[in-house]
Write a structure and sequence with these properties.
three-stranded antiparallel β-sheet; 235 residues; elongated; four-stranded antiparallel β-sheet; mainly beta
């Protein structure tokens, strides 16, 4: 069925838009957040968007697929790391010190020592090998929990602003089938088998892969314009 015939049929029948059911759609804004899609399907198609248009289309024949938002920090940049520490007494305290990026995980040893993976020592200039270095310690073993609450540059700006984003895709065997930086984490489309993404309607075509997915908003705009023309013609 042609695009124009489909529009005419929709107008004549009063068809309501009901996008096909999808396994999952969403955005991946958080570092390390993993989302699963297309469980039970035979194929997953991921459209990765960049600058408002499809940048790459990844087809995975062994779903479900997982998508992870990646973020990388600039190397060897002096930053101020703030850590909130919870003590066994229930008291909380925030401590700050200067480290060298990239800043990654925080660990607590024996409820006494907080170590943060970084490339420099607190309060000492210079970028060294990456290691879990001591950030804070107590002698009485009263540290119950700790978390990084902010990372800023020397001017006090959020260090997250200097991070670049990327996408990692794995298949059901947990094998990485795609990984690339400098791709935004948000707004990608995942379709399962031969379904169209939410907000699209499927139309059969003679071109590969035998169908196309037309945005419903685009069709609605054309329908509104055609209805306006028909009303004018009917007086």
């Amino acid at each position: 069925m042609s695009y124009r015939k489909l529009l005419l049929l929709i107008i004549m029948t009063g068809f309501s838009f009901k996008p096909p059911k999808w396994s999952y759609t969403g955005i991946y804004p958080n570092l390390g957040k993993i989302s699963m899609a297309c469980e039970g399907a035979n194929k997953a198609t991921i459209n990765l968007f960049k600058n408002g248009s499809i940048y790459k289309r990844i087809v995975v024949d062994s779903p479900p697929v997982t998508l992870e938002c990646l973020k990388s920090q600039k190397e060897c940049q002096a930053v101020i790391v703030a850590v909130e520490v919870l003590f066994s007494s229930g008291r909380t305290q925030v401590y700050s010190d200067r480290l060298w990026s990239p800043i990654s995980d925080l660990i607590i040893e024996n409820n006494s020592v907080i170590r943060i993976k970084n490339r420099g020592y607190p309060s000492i200039e210079g970028c060294r090998e990456e290691a879990h270095r001591i950030f804070y310690f107590v002698s009485d073993g009263t540290i119950k929990a700790a978390k990084i609450i902010s990372i800023t540059d020397a001017s006090g700006n959020s260090f997250a602003d200097s991070q670049s984003e990327g996408i990692r895709i794995r298949n059901k065997e947990n094998t990485i089938v795609f990984e690339e930086m400098n791709i935004p984490c948000e707004g990608h489309q995942i379709s399962c088998d031969d379904e169209c993404p939410p907000g699209h309607i499927r139309c059969e075509t003679s071109a590969y892969p035998g169908y196309c997915c037309i945005p419903c908003n685009e069709i609605k705009s054309e329908i509104a314009a055609m209805r306006s023309i028909i009303r004018r013609l009917n007086g």
